[in-house]
Each structure stands twice: as C-alpha cells, then as structure tokens.
Design a protein that fits this description.
5-stranded antiparallel sheet; LytTR_DNA-bd_dom; single chain; elongated; about 35% strand; 2 domains; about 240 residues; OB fold (Dihydrolipoamide Acetyltransferase, E2P); activator; Sig_transdc_resp-reg_receiver; phosphoprotein; 5-stranded parallel sheet; 15 strands
C-alpha cells in the first residue's frame, strides 16, 4: 500500500491539500490513505523512524517556517526512504532547481497557483505515483513454494515474519502476517532460498529483518511489527545491527 505524508506550515493550505487528496483517492479508486499531515518536519522524520517498512508519497511545502525547509526535509527523508515519491508544493518555480543541487530525486513539483490547477496537478501526481508503485511491486514481489497440507502453496516472502525449527525432526514453523504454518523442511534450505533481508538470528530462527519492530539486546529477543517475537543469540547480535 502506498501511504501519504503531507508537510505544510500554512494550516489553511494543509487542510486544502488534505481535502483534495482525500477526494481524489476516492475519485481515482486508489488504495491509499493519509498517514500523517503536519506543519512540523520533525514529525515526518519521527514517523519514518517508526514505519520504515512502509512506502510513502510525500507532499512537502518548500518554504517551511521551521528549523528545516522542504528541501532539507527531503534530504533527511532519503536517509530512511530511498524509494518514496517526493512531491514539492511551492509558490516559487525557481525552488525546483535546488532539488538537483541537493540530489533528493523529486518525483514532481506542484505550483500553488489556481485552486483548480492545484487539484488537477495533485490528482495526476497521485495517479502516476500509484501506478508506478503497483508496477514495481508486482514485478518485485517474490514468493516461496512450500508443501503445506499435502499441496504446494506459494507464500509471499514479504509477508513472512520468521521461520523457526520445531522439536520434530525437519519440521519448521513459519510465522506470517496472516497466520502460522507448519511444514517439513530444513532451515538451511530455506535460508539459501530467501533474499538478503532474511537473517539467521539463532540456530533455530531465520527472521525477516524488514518486519522487525525492535530488539531487546539484553534479553536477546526480537519483537516483530505484529507483536510476535523470536530469539537472537548473543553471537549473532552484532550482525543483526546491520539490518535494524
């Protein structure tokens, strides 16, 4: 799902952009929602730190009356989100040249001019970004084939939280966002098949690092985004820090 963040220091214009986006999401039948609408750029960074697994389209005012302007905010966003869609909303066309200087890879620029033009530009931007996002995710979304309930089922790798071994020889438990599944297999074989964001945190666990909410290094426990948990051995703690 493509989520939306708005940062605009003018409260009237913030409300206007929110209203336009909410209307166009319904009008265009786009599966998206506004996660955050704020006048404070620090709120955006704080939200990103807690929601690294999400994909966003950002509507940023360039001339923020804050400690950082929209261009500087975009630079900070890129530290956490390399693939998000950044859209600058500005009254000054010359501001667009600054994005090249600071290399923030803007998706689009929208000028605050006539209200009808503003609505049209936001609508087009939402439509293009969402279609681009759908195309990329459909191409990149990978599955793993697992024999479950006497038939082979394809599970999306990005929905899996972690694998764990069971007391029964060669039997594994797969924790996913949609439930827990038990099947026969070897953890080493699964590890060889999974992408690089999966990490062997323990001899009995293989964890999807993109689904980690937090790590309790003292207790050697990994907490997942859904509240589930698994173990990390002390010898693998250092390696895990490269992912979270």
């Amino acid at each position: 799902m493509l989520n939306i963040i708005i940062c605009e220091d003018n409260k009237v214009q913030l409300r206007q952009i929110q209203d336009i986006i909410e209307y166009e999401l319904t009008n265009l039948k786009i599966d998206s929602s506004i996660d955050l609408a704020t006048s404070n750029p620090k709120d955006v960074i704080d939200y990103l730190r807690k929601n690294k697994e999400k994909c966003f389209i950002y509507f940023l005012d360039v001339d923020l009356k804050a400690d950082m302007n929209g261009i500087e905010l975009a630079k900070n966003i890129r530290k956490y989100d390399l693939r998000g869609y950044i859209v600058f909303v500005t009254s000054h066309v010359e501001s667009s040249f600054l994005t090249f200087k600071y290399k923030v890879q803007a998706f689009d620029y929208i000028l605050k001019m006539d209200d009808d033009i503003l609505r049209k530009d936001i609508s087009e931007c939402l439509f293009q970004a969402y279609n681009n996002y759908k195309r990329i995710t459909s191409e990149e979304r990978k599955t793993i084939a697992i024999k479950y309930n006497n038939k082979v089922t394809n599970f999306y790798m990005d929905e899996i939280l972690f694998f764990e071994t069971m007391e029964i020889d060669h039997k594994l438990k797969m924790h996913t966002e949609k439930g827990i599944f038990e099947f026969y297999g070897k953890l080493k074989d699964i590890e060889d098949e999974m992408p690089s964001n999966y990490y062997r945190s323990h001899r009995s666990y293989l964890v999807n690092t993109s689904k980690i909410r937090s790590v309790d290094a003292r207790e050697c426990i990994i907490y997942m985004i859904n509240g589930d948990s698994c173990l990390v051995s002390k010898r693998y703690l250092k390696g895990l820090k490269a992912y979270v």
